[in-house]
Specification:
The protein is an alpha/beta fold. The protein is built from 2 helices and 4 strands, in the order ααββββ.
Length: 122
Protein backbone atom coordinates (compact mmCIF):
# COMPACT_ATOMS: atom_id res chain seq x y z
CA UNK A 1 0.00 0.00 0.00
CA UNK A 2 2.80 2.40 0.84
CA UNK A 3 4.48 1.92 -2.57
CA UNK A 4 1.17 2.57 -4.29
CA UNK A 5 0.67 5.77 -2.29
CA UNK A 6 4.16 7.00 -3.22
CA UNK A 7 3.55 6.24 -6.88
CA UNK A 8 0.22 8.10 -6.74
CA UNK A 9 1.82 11.08 -5.00
CA UNK A 10 4.61 11.27 -7.58
CA UNK A 11 2.11 10.97 -10.43
CA UNK A 12 -0.13 13.64 -8.92
CA UNK A 13 2.80 15.95 -8.30
CA UNK A 14 4.11 15.36 -11.81
CA UNK A 15 0.65 16.07 -13.23
CA UNK A 16 0.57 19.35 -11.32
CA UNK A 17 3.93 20.30 -12.75
CA UNK A 18 2.87 19.46 -16.28
CA UNK A 19 -0.25 21.61 -16.05
CA UNK A 20 1.15 24.59 -14.19
CA UNK A 21 4.44 25.01 -16.10
CA UNK A 22 5.98 26.85 -13.17
CA UNK A 23 6.53 24.25 -10.47
CA UNK A 24 9.20 22.24 -12.28
CA UNK A 25 12.15 23.92 -10.58
CA UNK A 26 10.58 23.38 -7.15
CA UNK A 27 9.97 19.71 -7.91
CA UNK A 28 13.45 19.25 -9.36
CA UNK A 29 15.08 19.75 -5.98
CA UNK A 30 13.59 16.51 -4.62
CA UNK A 31 13.76 14.22 -7.65
CA UNK A 32 17.19 12.76 -6.87
CA UNK A 33 15.78 11.15 -3.72
CA UNK A 34 13.34 9.10 -5.82
CA UNK A 35 15.84 6.34 -6.51
CA UNK A 36 13.34 4.02 -8.22
CA UNK A 37 12.07 6.69 -10.61
CA UNK A 38 12.95 5.53 -14.13
CA UNK A 39 11.41 8.18 -16.37
CA UNK A 40 10.63 11.90 -16.23
CA UNK A 41 8.53 13.86 -18.71
CA UNK A 42 9.07 17.57 -18.10
CA UNK A 43 8.00 18.62 -21.59
CA UNK A 44 6.67 22.10 -22.23
CA UNK A 45 8.27 23.60 -19.12
CA UNK A 46 10.66 26.52 -19.65
CA UNK A 47 13.92 25.09 -18.35
CA UNK A 48 17.14 27.09 -18.29
CA UNK A 49 19.46 24.64 -16.60
CA UNK A 50 19.74 21.85 -14.09
CA UNK A 51 22.47 19.52 -12.92
CA UNK A 52 22.79 15.76 -12.81
CA UNK A 53 22.75 15.69 -9.00
CA UNK A 54 19.13 16.89 -9.20
CA UNK A 55 18.06 13.82 -11.21
CA UNK A 56 17.85 10.18 -10.07
CA UNK A 57 21.04 8.32 -11.02
CA UNK A 58 19.09 5.37 -12.45
CA UNK A 59 17.01 7.46 -14.84
CA UNK A 60 16.35 5.59 -18.10
CA UNK A 61 14.01 8.00 -19.86
CA UNK A 62 13.90 11.79 -20.00
CA UNK A 63 11.55 13.94 -22.08
CA UNK A 64 12.32 17.64 -22.40
CA UNK A 65 10.31 18.36 -25.53
CA UNK A 66 9.41 22.01 -26.08
CA UNK A 67 11.37 23.31 -23.08
CA UNK A 68 13.03 26.22 -24.91
CA UNK A 69 16.47 24.63 -24.51
CA UNK A 70 19.26 26.13 -26.62
CA UNK A 71 21.86 23.54 -25.63
CA UNK A 72 21.85 19.93 -24.53
CA UNK A 73 22.04 19.98 -20.71
CA UNK A 74 25.60 19.15 -19.65
CA UNK A 75 24.39 16.59 -17.15
CA UNK A 76 23.13 14.21 -19.87
CA UNK A 77 26.50 12.43 -20.09
CA UNK A 78 26.50 11.68 -16.35
CA UNK A 79 23.15 9.86 -16.60
CA UNK A 80 24.86 6.57 -17.39
CA UNK A 81 21.64 4.49 -17.56
CA UNK A 82 19.77 6.88 -19.85
CA UNK A 83 18.27 4.95 -22.78
CA UNK A 84 15.60 7.31 -24.15
CA UNK A 85 16.00 11.05 -24.52
CA UNK A 86 13.45 13.36 -26.12
CA UNK A 87 14.67 16.87 -26.89
CA UNK A 88 12.39 17.68 -29.84
CA UNK A 89 10.92 21.13 -30.47
CA UNK A 90 13.66 23.11 -28.76
CA UNK A 91 16.27 25.53 -30.15
CA UNK A 92 19.29 23.22 -29.93
CA UNK A 93 21.96 23.75 -32.58
CA UNK A 94 24.62 21.28 -31.38
CA UNK A 95 23.50 17.85 -30.16
CA UNK A 96 26.89 16.11 -30.11
CA UNK A 97 26.74 15.64 -26.31
CA UNK A 98 23.64 13.45 -26.68
CA UNK A 99 25.68 10.72 -28.30
CA UNK A 100 28.08 10.51 -25.36
CA UNK A 101 25.39 8.76 -23.28
CA UNK A 102 26.67 5.16 -23.15
CA UNK A 103 23.31 3.30 -23.12
CA UNK A 104 21.29 5.64 -25.32
CA UNK A 105 18.96 3.73 -27.65
CA UNK A 106 16.68 6.57 -28.81
CA UNK A 107 17.34 10.29 -29.17
CA UNK A 108 14.42 12.42 -30.35
CA UNK A 109 15.90 15.60 -31.80
CA UNK A 110 13.38 16.70 -34.42
CA UNK A 111 12.33 20.34 -34.79
CA UNK A 112 15.58 21.84 -33.52
CA UNK A 113 18.21 24.00 -35.25
CA UNK A 114 20.74 21.19 -35.81
CA UNK A 115 22.67 21.52 -39.05
CA UNK A 116 25.24 18.75 -38.52
CA UNK A 117 26.18 16.02 -36.06
CA UNK A 118 29.54 14.71 -34.98
CA UNK A 119 28.93 11.16 -33.85
CA UNK A 120 31.60 8.59 -33.02
CA UNK A 121 30.37 5.01 -33.07
CA UNK A 122 32.12 2.06 -31.53
Amino acid sequence: MCGSTNAHTVHTLASSVMHSHNLFHALLAGLNSLTTLLSIDASDNPINQFSSDQLPAGLQGLALTGCQLTTVPKCMTSLTRLERLHLSANKISNATAVFRCPHLVHAGLSYNHISSLEVRLG
